[in-house]
Amino acid sequence: MVGQIGASSVYDSASLDARAGFAATPEVLLGRQRDFASVISRDAQRQANAEAPDPARKAAEDFVSMAFLEPLLAEVRAGNNAAEPFAPGPAEKQFGALLDRVMARQIVRASRFDLVDRLEADLRREPSAPPDRPLSAAPPALEGVIA
After folding, report:
1. How many CB atoms within 10 Å of residue 6?
2. CA–CA distances in Å: residue 83 to residues 87, 94, 128
3. Which of 11, 22, 39, 61 could link 17 by a cystine bridge, Cβ 3.0 to 4.6 Å?
4. Could you give the angle at the alpha carbon of 10 between the alpha carbons of 24 and 1, nearest 5°?
5. Calpha distance 127→95 (Å, rounded)
6. What's 144's DSSP letter?
7. How many other CB atoms are there within 10 angstroms of residue 73's CB atom?
8. Which residues, at least 6 apart from 73, have a Cβ–Cβ distance to it below 8 Å?
9. Cα distance between residue 63 and residue 6, in whole Å
């Protein structure tokens, strides 16, 4: 019946995914919920869980998603020139940046970007020995020029 929501009509993401033909497992849903919570949460304790990812890997993924993918997704979203029934509504405009952040994180986690691997390796590398000269000293090529 139109206008009534029965007990069998549950509007959650699992049932919507199932109706759309997606196989939404509890792990996928839990991952989506964690992504959303980490974006809107400022509390670091909420992000910590039993299977905490490697901090170097997470930092590299966050950097790549924030520096490269979020601006790209924002530009694509801003270029939406759809006609009025299909144009972005006020809610989509309001939460577009949040959607970009979540999508960027999911793209980076689902892909094996060489840049993420390189950044992770660089973050794991031990710091090099301190330079022989103090940081305030001029480089050897400029010692005679700077007085």
Report:
1. 7
2. 6, 19, 57
3. 22
4. 130
5. 40
6. T
7. 20
8. 100, 103, 104
9. 45
Structure tokens at 12: 């959650």
User: What are the pLDDT digits (tens) for 45-69?
Assistant: 545 554 566 899 999 999 999 999 9
Q: Which two tokens stand for residue 50?
A: 């039993």
- Could you read off the pLDDT of 105-121 as tens digits, one per residue? 999 999 889 999 999 99
Cβ neighbours, 10 Å, residue 93: 13
Length of the chain: 147
Lowest-pLDDT choice from 19-28, 85-94, 122-131:
19-28
Distance, in Å, from the CA atom of 32 to the CA atom of 41, rounded to the nearest integer, reads 14
Tokens for 56?
A: 């170097």
Mean pLDDT along residues 113-136: 80
Task: Tell me the C-alpha distance between 28 and 30, whole Å.
Answer: 5
